[in-house]
Amino acid sequence: MHAALSLSRAIDRLNDGIGKLVYWLVLAAVVVSSVNAVVRYSLNTSSNAWLELQWYLFAAIFLLCSGYTLLRNEHIRIDIVVGRFSRRTQAAVDVFGILFFLFPMSILIMCLAWPMFHDSYVTHEMSSDAGGLVRWPAKLLVPVGFFLLTVQGLSELIKRVAFLAGVTDEPGSATHSHS
């Protein structure tokens, strides 16, 4: 269990670091959106590339922070029902949800998205809009984002199992409480 908890801490650090880096993409999206609006309304000109860049930044924020959101326990939950259960029952429900909902969904999307990214990269797919951007970077975000979500799911699974086994005192903690 020690090795699994070490892996969990490493995954947590990875997603925490990515989440904190992606915060800066929020600022970039705001700046791009603001400059695009000012240029569009003051100079009566615009570019599809700027609009697509906004979409790419939003996609990066949403997809790359999915694992970070799970780490921070900020994802949508069924707390109205599960919140009434004991911590052990909540942890068991989390284990069930990770194994039978999160993993199948995230692994399936990751696997289906990879060939779409690969085809886009190999063919140098471009936006069909005039002045648009190359498409593969946006398509790469899907498998990468779902990979980060999947590995964070693994970390959460490890933490819940450790809690249920009595190795840790908290369901979401990867730190040892018993030796």
TrEMBL record:
Entry's transmembrane regions: 21-41, 53-71, 92-116, 136-154
Function: Part of the tripartite ATP-independent periplasmic (TRAP) transport system.
PANTHER family: 2,3-DIKETO-L-GULONATE TRAP TRANSPORTER SMALL PERMEASE PROTEIN YIAM, SLL1102 PROTEIN
Membrane topology: Multi-pass membrane protein
Protein family membership: Belongs to the TRAP transporter small permease family.
A matching Pfam family: DctQ
Subcellular locations according to the entry: Cell inner membrane
Keywords: Cell inner membrane, Cell membrane, Membrane, Transmembrane, Transmembrane helix, Transport
Residue ranges occupied by any Tripartite ATP-independent periplasmic transporters DctQ component domain in the UniProt entry: 30-161
Lineage: superkingdom: Bacteria
Organism: Azospirillum picis
Name by which UniProt lists this protein: TRAP transporter small permease protein
Signal peptide (residue range): none
Self-association state and partner proteins as the record states: The complex comprises the extracytoplasmic solute receptor protein and the two transmembrane proteins.
